[in-house]
Amino acid sequence: MFILASGVLCFFYFRTEEPAEVARDTLNDPDFLKDKEALLYFSTAADQDTFGGGKSYALFADKKGRLSSYQMKGLELGSAKVNDGSVLLEDKKGIYTVQNGLHIYKRAYQHTGDSAGYIERTKGFYTLYNSGYDKSGGSYRSELYRQIDGRWKQDVIPHYIRASGFFKDHLFALTPTDDEKGYHIQDIQADKEKLHTKSIATWTYKEGTSVESQLAADDGGVCFVTRGEKAEHIYQMVKVMRKSGAIKTYDIAAYKNDEQTIYDSMPFSFKKSFFMERRSFYFVDGFGNVYRINPETGKSKKAFTLPASRMKADFKDLTHQNEKLYLFTYSYKKTAKIESFDLKTGKKLNDRTIPSLQDIVTPKSHLKLYDVQVMGGF
Questions:
Q1: Long-range pairs for 327-336 at CB < 8 Å and ≥24 separation?
Q2: pLDDT tens readout for residues 203-216
Q3: Closest Cα partner for 200 from 170, 178, 169, 160?
Q4: What CA–CA distance (Å, rounded) separates 220 from 240?
Q5: Cα separation of 355 and 148, whole Å?
Q6: pLDDT-derived band at 7, boundaries 50, 70, 90
Q7: Whole-angstrom Cα distance, residue 310 to residue 78?
């Protein structure tokens, strides 16, 4: 009887509340987002869609870590974005916005996401896709969708996009040269009805060099992180001057030159490992080292290191805003957590646990983590 009573007590005391499935009517409630602090986007990869079985989840966490789950179709490398009380979600066949209700824009099938964000001048979101091979055009194509005056507009970019970034209404992209020995740095002015694209410069690289981040920019230049140009164990920041097209390269991190160390140093988040926040660039490596980089001199300094135990998690991702770095971690046998850190000092500021995530993201679910956003006052 004692064992039975103990089991009952453990069941009621320690069990987690299952995520609440969200219907469209719930997302139409203007108060739905008010108590939400984080948004997670999980999806299956493209190969899970071979027979139509792919799926994705937008998971909204409130202040107590309780989840509301909205299920969609899958989209590999898809995004979820938040801007001042409005939300962008997406799957392989549509774009979803939540602002004064749920709005769904059905578009042509997309194979792989790249990036998404918000264009201040048009007061709307954008989302970019690597759409795949265009049989009619005989070349690769990417597609950009933008909200202009409340409607969605589609534009075709006739290139594969290796990396992209957004700054002050300009979308920047790396597109391969014809001989695939370099990249053109494209400046795409995204706030006009007609898309205007120009090539700032062409960056050529040594064989074996890899691009290790998305793009980040300021008024002076467009930057990204590479590895292998100087040596396989050295990470560098490439800066392309926006006006002159001049290209500068700076060493930002170096590691012991052995195979395991090089592998472990690789950023765990391609989309979020390199970014600008309050006039400094930041790079986060696979060990959780956070490097602060002076945008003028290119000099880097290790600002702080994220908790080593978190680097062993099955799922890890970053986001940042208002001089804070947010780290999301989750392992199948441990509770999910979001922690915030002061980017200046590295001091931990706050955290939230999300116990019920394990009811959705399991080893059998085949779900991958593709985006994390913070909302409200977290």
A1: 328/38, 328/40, 328/369, 328/372, 330/354, 330/357, 330/361, 330/369, 332/358, 332/361, 332/362, 332/363
A2: 999 999 999 999 99
A3: 170
A4: 8
A5: 39
A6: very low
A7: 24
SS3 per-residue string spanning 87-112: EEEEECCEEEEECCCEEEEECCCCCE
CA distance linking residue 156 with residue 167, whole number of Å: 20
- Separation between Cα atoms, residue 230 and residue 288, nearest integer Å: 23
264 Cβ neighbours under 8 A, 6+ residues apart = 286, 287
Q: Which two tokens stand for residue 269?
A: 């988040």
CA distance 288 to 315: 14
Mean pLDDT computed over 310-338: 96
Using CA atoms, how far apart are residues 277 and 291, in angstroms rounded to an integer?
Answer: 12
- Sequence length of the chain is 378
DSSP state of 5: H
Q: What is the pLDDT of residue 322?
A: 92
Residues 6+ apart with CB under 8 A from 160: 130, 140, 142, 175, 176
Token pair listed for 207: 């064989």
174-197 pLDDT, tens digit per residue, is 999 999 999 999 999 999 999 999
Tens digits of per-residue pLDDT, 225-258?
Answer: 999 999 999 999 999 999 999 999 999 999 999 9
**Tokens matching residue 238:** 């490439």
pLDDT digits (tens, 9 = 90+) for 72-106: 999 999 999 999 889 999 999 999 999 889 999 99
Q: Residue 137: which residues within 8 A CB-CB, separation 6 or more?
A: 158
